[in-house]
Amino acid sequence: MNRIALCAVAVGCVVCLEEPVHGQAGQTARGVRLEIQSGSKAEYRVREQLARLNFPNDAVGATESITGALVMRPDGTFTGDSKLTVDMRTLRTDEPKRDGFMRENTLETNRYPLAEFVPRRHTGLPTPLPTSGGATFKLIGDLTLHGVTAEQTWDVAATFAGDAVNAKATTRFNFAKYKITIPRVFGLLSVDDDIRLELSLRMNRSRVG
């Protein structure tokens, strides 16, 4: 009888120890949604040589009209509703004439008003996402720009602080990849065949699933 009682106590202890573990696993097996917050910004940079200057400079266009979310499953893969959207019609530089030309002739924003990025996978991103510290990783997905969709890889540096996630993502490509015509206007001597995009993202984390 003593041996039976001892076994029963042992089994009971094992069950008690296992229950919190199962409960904890249930909590961690949830997805994460990173929602874009106000203050996020999208920029493009193109090196140009103006006739009135003796040195090249960067033409920089920026907008804060960026929306969307990155939604990740517990295993770190992205769900189908993950997408970032930039309103290309709101891009501005320090030259209003350049802005008008870029919208009408280069980016053709009347025909292609939005740029969209749909993430497909990542490399180097910790799973699950940390709640503090930082991480650098690559984000790979489909970028739709100027009516063309192509795979694009971003280099990302992110910092984590509780539910706040800030990230800077950069990528580059030539004009032909998205069938964009290199600007040719009076006063512009040359433009490098290299477009650099930069996203400065402020995101809020919430659990899903």
Indicate the proportion of strand residues.
over 45%
Number of strands: 10
What is the helical fraction, as a range of percent?
10-25%
Average of the residue pLDDT scores: 84
Q: Please tell me what the overall shape is.
A: elongated
Q: How many helices does DSSP assign?
A: 2
Provide the succession of SSEs. HEEEEEHEEEEE
Radius of gyration based on Cα positions: 24 Å
Span of the ends, CA to CA: 48 Å
Secondary-structure class: alpha+beta
Give unreliable regions as ranges. Answer: 4-28
In spatial order, strands of the major sheet run 1-4-5-6-7-8-9-10
List the defining traits of the structure above.
209 residues; elongated
Can you give a write-up of this model?
It is elongated and about 55 Å long. About 12% of the residues have low confidence. It is built from two helices and ten strands, in the order H-E-E-E-E-E-H-E-E-E-E-E. It has 209 residues and is an alpha+beta fold. Strand 6 and strand 7 form a beta hairpin.
